[in-house]
């Protein structure tokens, strides 16, 4: 259960560690990947511009503000998966879709500053994508 478990909370408290647990009301950036609607996941990455990669789609949220970022090298399947994951992460909010290169200033402000990120094509291994499972988020 990670950040939602009592053991994790105790570990963080005892070690003076920073609790980076996902928060629905905070800032979060998710890279979306998978091979189809029954085989997808959203991976939380650092909410900074260098975490972006043109080969993927991302979901960025800051409280009630949600953006879906579409990398120039992503596929139509990647875009569909991002929309499906959005229904899991923020089902009651409308996302603003941004194609790479046409971002709003607000998008970059949430990520701190506009800076460089990878625009290199990532070769994906269909075999590794075959083992992905849809993620769920604990509420509470």
From TrEMBL:
<dbReference type="Pfam" id="PF00626">
    <property type="entry name" value="Gelsolin"/>
</dbReference>
<dbReference type="GO" id="GO:0051015">
    <property type="term" value="F:actin filament binding"/>
</dbReference>
<dbReference type="InterPro" id="IPR007122">
    <property type="entry name" value="Villin/Gelsolin"/>
</dbReference>
<dbReference type="InterPro" id="IPR007123">
    <property type="entry name" value="Gelsolin-like_dom"/>
</dbReference>
<protein>
    <recommendedName>
        <fullName>Gelsolin-like domain-containing protein</fullName>
    </recommendedName>
</protein>
<feature type="region of interest" description="Disordered">
    <location>
        <begin position="1"/>
        <end position="22"/>
    </location>
</feature>
<keyword id="KW-0677">Repeat</keyword>
<feature type="domain" description="Gelsolin-like">
    <location>
        <begin position="42"/>
        <end position="83"/>
    </location>
</feature>
<dbReference type="InterPro" id="IPR029006">
    <property type="entry name" value="ADF-H/Gelsolin-like_dom_sf"/>
</dbReference>
<dbReference type="GO" id="GO:0051014">
    <property type="term" value="P:actin filament severing"/>
</dbReference>
């Amino acid at each position: 259960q990670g950040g939602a478990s009592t053991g994790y909370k105790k570990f963080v408290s005892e070690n003076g560690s920073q609790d980076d647990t996902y928060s629905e009301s905070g800032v979060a950036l998710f890279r979306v990947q998978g091979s189809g609607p029954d085989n997808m996941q959203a991976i939380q990455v650092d909410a900074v511009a260098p975490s972006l990669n043109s080969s993927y789609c991302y979901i960025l949220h800051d409280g009630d503000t949600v953006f879906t970022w579409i990398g120039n090298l992503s596929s139509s399947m990647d875009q569909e998966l991002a929309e499906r994951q959005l229904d899991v992460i923020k089902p009651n909010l409308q996302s603003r879709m941004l194609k790479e290169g046409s971002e709003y200033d607000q998008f970059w402000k949430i990520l701190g500053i506009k800076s460089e990120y990878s625009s290199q094509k990532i070769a994906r291994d269909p075999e590794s994508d075959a083992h992905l499972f849809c993620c769920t988020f604990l509420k509470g």
